[in-house]
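Hi U.,

Before I forget, here's the chain from the pilot set. I'm dumping it here mostly so it's searchable later in email.
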Amino acid sequence: MRGDAVFHVHGVSKTYRMGEVEVHALRAVDLDLYEGELVVLLGASGSGKSTLLNILGGLDRPSGGTVVYRDHELAAASDAELTEYRRDHVGFVFQFYNLIPSLTALENVALVTQIAAHPMDAAQALELVGLADRSDHFPAQLSGGEQQRVAIARAIAKRPDVLLCDEPTGALDYATGKLVLEVLERVNREVGAVTVLITHNAAIAALADRVIRIGSGRIVGVEHNATRASVADISW
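Structure:
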């Protein structure tokens, strides 16, 4: 059962100029995203999925069209308004972890809680991703999968309405990648944020409520999964 719509994206385009050449990253994208759902954006490199994710996250603006988050028009927002939106509502998980090397896992997560309006306790966020016993370790003392889970804990500690994940398993081996996907699935169910995960890996699509296929800057297909697969049941 779908919750309320969190995003209304209508007619969104994005064009980059490289010298005298125009690159059309997105072309007339229409998309709604709903509370609590897990959506996979699936497409090859260069298809436009990262551009769409950045626009949803307020890191970039569209060249045309509208992006409405609840009752806020992001396409027309000022830089200050987009900063406030990202701070208060959005959690980001990137392929590379972006942890501060001189801070422990707990301190990396706690850094975000200092600027969030209604954060969860940093230790609670680490416990949610299964790293309560690694809280006093520095990034160099953690495996790649553990560092990615710290990054997830940091993203969810602000209690975001929106969790945006850009190839979160791309730098990980198969076993570690599955562990990270298990964490993301659990966080989606327990925190309730609309979760958008971009990947080029079709096998991961089985975990989603919806799979949105993107090619050449357009949505080329939408698939609904009646039942989300378990991470244990997928392989790639």
